[in-house]
Amino acid sequence: MDLTVLGGIFAGLFFLLISIFVGNFPFYIYWSVISIFITICGSFSALTVSMPWDVTRNIGKVFRIALMNQKLNIDSLIPMLVSFSEKSRREGLLSLEDDIENIDDLFLKTGLQLVVDGTDPDVIKTILYHEMDQIDTRHSRGILFFQQWGKQAPAWGMIGTLYGLVGMLQSLGDPASIGVGMAAALITTFYGAIMANLIFIPISVKLEDRHTSEMLIKDIILEGILSIQTGDNPRIVEQKLLAFLDPKLRDKVRQTD
Fold first, then answer.
1. How far apart, in whole angstroms, are the C-alpha atoms of residue 217 and residue 179?
2. From CA 43, how far away is CA 250, in angstroms rounded?
3. Can you list the pairs that 106-114 forms with residues at least 24 positions away whose Cβ atoms lie under 8 Å?
4. In sequence order, what DSSP letters do the residues of 152-186 get, joined into one string?
5. Quick check: helix, strand or coil at residue 145?
6. How many other C-beta atoms are found inside a 10 Å radius of the C-beta of residue 35?
7. Per-residue confidence of the chain (257 residues) as pLDDT tens digits?
8. Is the dihedral of CA 143, 145, 148, 149 positive or negative?
């Protein structure tokens, strides 16, 4: 689990509470059940209108992706592909069949199985690129969901503010209630801004980073599979795959090789 996601959210809330405490403001003036109801439920309801239901109902799974680290990291992936290259050159492509059973990554498993089955390279490219396109589409919809929620939350905060202002204007005859009414009206915008800038927008950025990392892994796997099929020298395979990485990360991968 990537603790920076929850840690960052809780840290933001903690520093916000500290700021309230240092400012000598009573905590209760920042609490409004109605404002929470309007901001969270209202913005989520708007999302169910704009987003497909299959995305909305699976948003919990998308959030877990933001919390979790990659299952298959590059440190172990490249040495694995190089070892498959060495084995296939030494014993033949069919020798990889036993290794396929021990692979958890479905994309890698599918690609190697196609190689062992003697599938044409162009067909392998077509199949795996289609798979990558599907992954890209699925990830993009999850990212878009949180991006849109980041836009909807402040908008519904403003709706809650307008709702509060209407009630405040009804009490203009009582000057003492105007300040209280204004505070109640603005608290909804306060909630919307916190939700958008501390939770939803940062999560969408984290998901984009997760997507970029996963697509990099898929590109490395695809290049490795095609190199194995063509029988490239393992040293050449390693150089091809390391070319995808930042120079500092290349040295780290070489040390684990």
1. 56
2. 44
3. 107/131, 107/218, 107/221, 108/72, 108/221, 108/225, 111/221, 111/222, 111/225, 112/84, 112/225, 112/228, 114/225
4. HHHHHHHHHHHHHHHHHHTTTT-HHHHHHHHHHHH
5. helix
6. 25
7. 677 888 898 999 899 888 888 877 777 778 888 888 889 999 999 999 988 888 888 888 888 888 876 655 777 888 889 999 998 888 888 888 888 888 888 899 999 999 988 888 899 999 999 999 999 999 999 999 999 999 999 999 998 888 878 777 776 666 655 666 676 678 889 999 999 999 999 999 999 988 998 899 999 999 999 999 888 888 898 889 888 887 777 766 765 55
8. negative
Which pair of structure tokens corresponds to residue 55?
A: 């995305």
SS3 state at 52: coil
- Residue at token pair 């930042």: 246
Q: What is the largest CA-CA distance in the chain?
A: 91
